[in-house]
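This protein record is not my work; I was only asked to verify it. Where you disagree with what is written, explain briefly why. This is what I was given:
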Amino acid sequence: MLHAFNQKNVRRILAAGIHGQQAEEHVNEKNEDGVTSMVFSPLVFMPTASALEVLLAVIGNRLRAALRGREVVNHDIQFWPGGLRTTNWQGGRDSRCEPDVLIRLTFTEGRPLTLIGEMKWDWLISAEHLSDEIQRQRSAVRMAEPDAEQLVFAITKLRATRPPEGTELRNWIQVERNARQLERNSADLVAARWGALVSTFLRKAKQASFQGFHSSELETLHTSTPVFWTKANG
């Protein structure tokens, strides 16, 4: 699908042009599913060493620290895993919880590490909502995999001013930049090829350029002094 998008201008994988709040939310959700698959599905077929190099490029030093120098011997990837449940959004009875991607890394020794990934494509999500969503995912994965350590990462359209605690938060501009660096600098041909394809995809999907400011990220300016210079205020 990456090749179809990049080389044949297949754009219908990313839906657009539907209006109304519910319709737009549906489109965003489907776009996120498509993007998650295009960016991370190639890792399923990679050697573990190549997949790890890609993950380090995407997530960065927080993942490097979590590895603690241990050798990763296997990686397993699940998209939208079924069967996970935790308390609902109101804190009541259990309901379904579905992270976008779970990546389980196993080592020669020590507990496995599960990476919990959440993708947001065009939703300008609030820090509070993202934090609540991530907390539910942490809880659900902890119940399903009590033996595993956890690391949560999220990729959003814009970088939040207050990332959820313990979460590595990236935006798509950063992912594109790091993918491009991987293409140029990696000695691993598989990881470098992933970098080339994903960098091209994000540029063509117009996620690798400045998107403007969103009102939720700006502080209100309280002042009685005119902001713009005029002849009256000299």
